[in-house]
C-alpha cells in the first residue's frame, strides 16, 4: 500500500535525515516507526503526504508514484494526526470533525451526522461533547477528536506522528487500547511515529527501529524483542525486553494445561488427581473451581460447593495480562476460555506454562516456525503434583 524505494532526504544545510530507505507497509497494516529523537521518523512520514519532498528515490501509494499526484488530491487519501492536534478553536467538536468531508462537498447535515458516528467510535459521546469547543476538553479527549477528524473523510491511509505523546501515561494507555480496538474495526493502513518502544510494540503489526536515517530492523514486535538484529536494536529495546515480550505474546491453546474437570450437577468427587478441579456448567462454560479437600469432606453436588472463578482470560490475551491477572487475584493459575464460542473452557495457564509459552515463542521467532512446533524439555505439571 505504501512503498519506499531507495528514498533519501538531505536538507539544505547538508543534514541527511533519511538515507536510502526501502520498506513497504501492507494494506490494513499498522507499522510503527520508532527511534531516538532526530533519527528521521517525522521526515519519513511527511514525505508520504508530500509535506517534505525526497531528495532522491520514489514513494508509491497503492501502486501510484506520489510525485505524480497533486499534493491536495494526495492528502485527501491520507488522514494525518499529530501531537498538537490543531483543532479549530472557534469550531465545536462536531464541526471540527465534519470539516474535511464538508470541504470535500458533503452536505453539512450529512457531514455532521457522520462526524457524530466517528466521535462515538473514538469513545466520545456526541450528545455530551459534540457542541463543546476544544478548550473545554481534556488533552486525551482532544487527541480523540484529532483521530475522529482524520478518519472523517474515510482515507485508506493514516499517518500518525506521536499522536498520544502529550498525554499522561494512564490516559495514553487508554488511548492506545481504544485505538487498537478502532483499528480492528476500520483496518486502515497506518504509519505511526513514536519514540516510545513500549508504544511501538504494543500497537505495531510490525515495527521499524530507526538508527540515524536508516532502519536497523523491520519486523514483528515479538521478533524485534526476541531476536534484535543488531546491538543497537538490543540497546534500544532495553535490557528488560524479555518482560516487554510478555505484552506482545498471546496465550495460545497449546500453552494450556488440562486439569481435572467436574460439572455443576455431578456428585462431589471423592478421588481427585489434583489439589483442585475446574467446575463447568452444562454448556461446558467456566463456572469456577473446587478444592479436593473440600470435595472429600462435603456432601451433595458440586454446585453447592463450587467457588466462582474470577481469574480468567480469553485465549489470545497477552501473557502480560495473564501474569497481571494472576497477581491481581493472588491466583496460582488462571482459566482460559474461548470468547468466540460463548465462553467455552479451554484449559488453565499456570506460571510454569506461562514461562514455557514465553520460551517457546522466543525459540519459534528465532527459528521462524510456529510456536507449537518448538520442542522444549517438558515442565513439571503443577496441577498433577
Ligand atoms: N527543515 C530542516 N532543515 C534541516 N534539518 C532538518 C530539518 N528538519 C529536520 N531536520 C533534521 O533532520 C533529522 C531528522 O529529523 P526528524 O524530524 O525527521 O527526526 P525525528 O526522528 O522525527 O525526531 P523527533 O523524534 O525528535 O521528532 C534531524 O537531525 C533534524 O535536525
UniProtKB/TrEMBL annotation:
The keyword Membrane does not apply. One of its GO terms (cellular component) is membrane. SUPFAM superfamilies: CBS-domain pair (SSF54631), P-loop containing nucleoside triphosphate hydrolases (SSF52540). It is an enzyme of class 7 (translocase). Belongs to the ABC transporter superfamily. Keywords: ATP-binding, CBS domain, Nucleotide-binding, Repeat, Transport. Residues 2-237 form the ABC transporter domain. Its EC number is 7.6.2.9. Transmembrane segments: none annotated. One of its GO terms (biological process) is glycine betaine transport. GO terms for molecular function: ABC-type quaternary ammonium compound transporting activity; ATP binding; ATP hydrolysis activity. It comes from the Bacteria. InterPro entries: AAA+_ATPase, ABC_transporter-like_ATP-bd, ABC_transporter-like_CS, CBS_dom, CBS_dom_sf, Gly-betaine_transp_ATP-bd, P-loop_NTPase. NCBIfam families: proV. It holds the Pfam family CBS. Residues 306-364 form the CBS domain. This is ABC-type quaternary amine transporter.
Amino acid at each position: 500500500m505504501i512503498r519506499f524505494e531507495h528514498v533519501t532526504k538531505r536538507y539544505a544545510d547538508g543534514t541527511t535525515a533519511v538515507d536510502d530507505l526501502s520498506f513497504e507497509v501492507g494494506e490494513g497494516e499498522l507499522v510503527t516507526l520508532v527511534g531516538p529523537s532526530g533519527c528521521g521518523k517525522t521526515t519519513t512520514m511527511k514525505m508520504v503526504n508530500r509535506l517534505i519532498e525526497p531528495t532522491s528515490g520514489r514513494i508509491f501509494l497503492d501502486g501510484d508514484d506520489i510525485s505524480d499526484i497533486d499534493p491536495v488530491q494526495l492528502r485527501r487519501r491520507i488522514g494525518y494526526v499529530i501531537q498538537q492536534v490543531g483543532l479549530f478553536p472557534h469550531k465545536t467538536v462536531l464541526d471540527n470533525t465534519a470539516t474535511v468531508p464538508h470541504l470535500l462537498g458533503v452536505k453539512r447535515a450529512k457531514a455532521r451526522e457522520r462526524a457524530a458516528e466517528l466521535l462515538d467510535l473514538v469513545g466520545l459521546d456526541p450528545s455530551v461533547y459534540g457542541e463543546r469547543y476544544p478548550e473545554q476538553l481534556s488533552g486525551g479527549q482532544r487527541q480523540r477528536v484529532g483521530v475522529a477528524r482524520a478518519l472523517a473523510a474515510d482515507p485508506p491511509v493514516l499517518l500518525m506522528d506521536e499522536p498520544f505523546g502529550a498525554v499522561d501515561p494512564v490516559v495514553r494507555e487508554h488511548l492506545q487500547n481504544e485505538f487498537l480496538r478502532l483499528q480492528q474495526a476500520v483496518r486502515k493502513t497506518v504509519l505511526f511515529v513514536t519514540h516510545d518502544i513500549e508504544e511501538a510494540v504494543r500497537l505495531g503489526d510490525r515495527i521499524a527501529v530507526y538508527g540515524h536515517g536508516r532502519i536497523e530492523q523491520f519486523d514483528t514486535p515479538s521478533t524485534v524483542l526476541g531476536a534484535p538484529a543488531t546491538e543497537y536494536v538490543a540497546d534500544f529495546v532495553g535490557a528488560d525486553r524479555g518482560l516487554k515480550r510478555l505484552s506482545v505474546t498471546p496465550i495460545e491453546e497449546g500453552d494450556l494445561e488440562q486439569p481435572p474437570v467436574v460439572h455443576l450437577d455431578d456428585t462431589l468427587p471423592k478421588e481427585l488427581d489434583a489439589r483442585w478441579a475446574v467446575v463447568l456448567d452444562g454448556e461446558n462454560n467456566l463456572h469456577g473451581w473446587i478444592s479436593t479437600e473440600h470435595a472429600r469432606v462435603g456432601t451433595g453436588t458440586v454446585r453447592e460447593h463450587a467457588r466462582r472463578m474470577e481469574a480468567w482470560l480469553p485465549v489470545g490475551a497477552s501473557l502480560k495480562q495473564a501474569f497481571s491477572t494472576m497477581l491481581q487475584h493472588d491466583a496460582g493459575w488462571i482459566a482460559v476460555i474461548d470468547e468466540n464460542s460463548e465462553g467455552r473452557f479451554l484449559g488453565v495457564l499456570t506460571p510454569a506454562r506461562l514461562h514455557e509459552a514465553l520460551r517457546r515463542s522466543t525459540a519459534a521467532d528465532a527459528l521462524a516456525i510456529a510456536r507449537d512446533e518448538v520442542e522444549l524439555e517438558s515442565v513439571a505439571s503443577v496441577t498433577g503434583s
